[in-house]
Design goal:
Distance between the termini: 28 Å
Strand order of the largest sheet: 1-2
Low-confidence stretches: 6-26, 190-211
Shape: globular
Amino acid sequence: LSFLGIYSSMVASNCPRSSRHANTTLTQNTLCVVLEQNISKVSKKTKEITKFHSSTASPISITTYVSRIAKYGRCLVDHFTLALLYIDRIIKNNPDQLQFDEFTAHRLLITAIVIATKYDSDVYYNNAAYAKIGGLPVRELNSLEVSFLSTLQYNLYVSPAEFEEFQQSILHQYSRITEASRPSFYHHPYQQTTTYSYKFAPSVRPFIKGNNNIQQVCFT
């Protein structure tokens, strides 16, 4: 399965519909919830170490990282959705080499965002700016971009139908996640009381350096 399991099953017929121009805050939050959930599910070890693997897990949560990219990179929700679709493709085609986990998530995401933004927009930042936003040396980001494109075989086209199906699949998975974590306030007298636990992302203050318009965050 790919990291989101998007094509493992068809979207339920009663999955709520939404347009490409859905509410930005809600959709960004939806993406973050799904990404955090998928990272936590990963347990398989890959056979090879790629350019996208970091030596240690990043102290920055994927939610904080997405918010940072959206803020400083001025990336739209559509760009994030397109980036995740590209990540889904690359992992599905290379299941033994890549997976979306705490060691690869940040590099895969910033690289896919760079590619998605360039493909979908007429105006975008150069790689030096994206590297500063993502906390990577610009040479490394350039190398990651070339490697990502090569693995995709430069197949960046996404039809409107595929984009919509992918978006609806994310929304459907988000719905399942929220339903599973929703506590029930009614208990049958003969049923055992269920205890619900909630897992919150750790609050980590990243190391910030520089006093430019774009603060730079570093991770290994």
